[in-house]
Design brief:
single chain, mainly alpha
Length: 72
């Protein structure tokens, strides 16, 4: 699970060793409506967003003590 991996890496780094987060989120198609899509992935990752909103999955995985850091 890539989002869990992101969380695990941030936990190991801790807030003193991280300046911020660079996230890469995109859609799986050219339709502009996909930016607002709430579609989820197929099992076993049904809790993860399919398209651009995956950025919310990553931001939700940021440990509480690191949520003051900037996200790009």
């Amino acid at each position: 699970d890539w989002v869990q991996y992101f969380h695990d890496i941030l936990t190991v780094l801790g807030p003193e060793n991280c300046d911020g987060f660079a996230l890469h989120a995109y859609t799986h198609g050219a339709d502009p409506s996909l930016l607002a899509s709430q579609a989820r992935m197929a099992p076993p990752f049904q809790s993860r967003h399919q398209h651009f909103r995956t950025y919310t999955d990553f931001l939700g995985a940021v440990p509480a003590e690191m949520r003051h850091l900037p996200a790009f």
